[in-house]
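Record 1 of the preview.
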Amino acid sequence: MFQSFDVTSTPQFGCERVAGLRAAFGDLGIDGFLVPRADEYQGEYVPQCSERLAWLTGFTGSAGVALVTHSQAVVFVDGRYVTQLAEQVDGSVFTGGDLVNEPPHVWLPRHGKKGFRLGIDPWLHTGAEVRRLEKALAEIDGKLVFLPHNPLDKLWSDRPAEPLGGVIIQDIGQAGVLAKDKLATIAANLKEKNLKAVLITDPSSVAWIFNIRGSDVPHTPHPLARAIIHTEGVAELFLDKRKTKVEAEAYLAQICKQLPPADLTKRLAAAAANGGRILVDPDLAPYALTDVIRGEGGEIVEGSDPAKLPRACKNAAEINGSAAAHLQDGAAMVEFLYWLETSKPGTVTEIAAAERLEACRARVGESMQNPLKDISFDTISGAGEHGAVIHYRVTTASDRLIQAGELFLIDSGAQYINGTTDITRTVGIGAVPEEQKRFFTLVLKGMIAISMARFPKGTRGCDLDPLARIALWKAGVDYAHGTGHGVGSYLSVHEGPQRIARLAVQELLPGMILSNEPGYYRPGHFGIRIENLIYIRDPEEIEGGDMSMLGFETLTFCPIDRSLVLVELLTHEELHWLNEYHARTREALMPLIHDHDIRAWLENATLELKH
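->
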C-alpha cells in the first residue's frame, strides 16, 4: 500500500509544545513565531522531517500556517479544512483563523500589539511573503526578525532524517523535449534579458527541466533539489549523490554539474558577485536565498520561474501520455465501482474501499505493463457525513462501514510513468433521498458547464469559475474550494499557475491540464463532488462566429452514477453531453476490460438517459 491509515495527528501534545516554543521567545527577542506548512522547498507535499505545523498543532492538512504569540495560538486554514482543524487540534490551546480573508499579514495589524516582533525561519518563507509581513508589521511599528535557526527543530527531539529518495530519468518518450534543449531555451532567454543566471528552487521545475523524477516526498515524484542555470548555458544541479545511481549520474553529467546541496549558497554567492543579475521567482524562492544574493552585492531581478508556464502547457507527448494513463486508470475505476456496487451494503469500510481501489490500479497496471508508481495523494474515502469533510483522510480511528441509503465520495489519483490522474466519483449506496439527488444533479450541471465551455484567448480561470457554481447559487448553496487546479505530467497532482477559481488570474493556455470538480457539502450529513481532468485545446473556428475559441477536451473516462441524476433538472444540451460522455466512456474502456461481469456492468452504467 502507498497509503497509511494510521492516526498521525497528535493534538494531545499541543499545549506542551506551544509552551516550549513560547519559552524560547525571550532568548530570541521575539513576541511571536510563524509556523507555515511549507518546507524549505515551498512544496505542498513535504517530507516527514518538515511537518513542523503538524508536529506543533496536530493539524495534518496540506495548507495552513500557525501564529504563536505569548497569549494566542492561531491556526489559519482555508474553507477546505475548517472542519478538519476543529477535529485535529486542542481547542483549549489553538483557535482557528481564516487563511483567505484574514491571513497572518492581515491579522497582525488588527490584533498585534504596538512594536510586535515577529520571528520567522527565512528558509520557510518566500520573498513575497516577507514583503507582506514587513508591510503589515510597519503599521504597528513592529519588526520582522529573521532567526538563525528554527526553534521548533530544537524542541523536536525525534525529528526524522531528511529523505534520500532515488532519482530516475524521465524518458524522452514521456518528456517530449530533451533536457539539453530546455536548458538551451532558458539560457537564451536569460541572455536576451541581460541576466547572469536564474535560481530554480521549485523541485517540480527541477524535475521537468532536467527530465528526472524522484521519491523524496509522498506521492509526488520530484527530488528535493535546486539548480542555478547560467546565461552561458552551464547548469548546476544541487542534488545529493546518494539519490543517484550510476545511470542517473552518467545522464546528468552530460547536461549539468551535479553538486552537493550544501554548495548552493556558495555557488549562488559566486554568481551574484560583482553585481550579477539573478532571476528569482519571489513566490517560490526562500527569503534566505535572496538574502545570499543581496549579501554579495548581486541584483535580484524578480520574474516568473522560466519552467512554470512551459511545464504547465503540455507538449504532444505529455498530453498523449496523460490520455493513455487516464484510460488505464478508468479501467481500474470501473473494476472498483463494479466491486463496490456488487458488495452488500454495510460490509465495506472506507479503508477497505481505498485499499481495493489501489489494488485495482496495481492489477490493471501490471496487466497493461504500465505499473502503478504511486497514488497521487492520499485517497479521500468518505461515507455519509465523512463525505462532507472536503479533504477527509480516513484513519483506523475514523473508519466506518458504508451503509445503504447514503452517499459515498471517493477522490483518488495515481502516478504512472506517462501521467498523473485525479478523479472523484460520488455514488449512491442503494436508494438515497431525493434531496441528495437534487444536489448531485446541480453539481453535475456545473461540471458539464465547464466541460462544454468555449472561451476566447485571454480568458482566466476566475472568468470560468462562475459557470460551475451558477446552478448551485440559484439553489442558495456554494462550495468552499476552487473548481479546478492544474495537474502535472508525472509530477504534482496540484500544479500552478493554472487554476479555475475565484482568484485565478492566470490566462488559460493550450495544453494546460486542469481538474473540473465542483461539489456541495452539508456538514454532518453528506458530501458530493464529481471530478474529471480536462485539457485546453487549441483555438478552433465556430461556424457562423467571428473568432476562434479555446475549449476543453476530457481526459477522464469513468461512469457517473446515473441513479443519482434527476434528468428533469438537465437541459437537452446537458443531457446530450452526459449521454455522449457515457458512450465515449463505454467505447474507450470496453477493450481494456476482459471480465464478462464487469463488461456487463459497464454497459449498464453507461446506458442512455432520456427526458
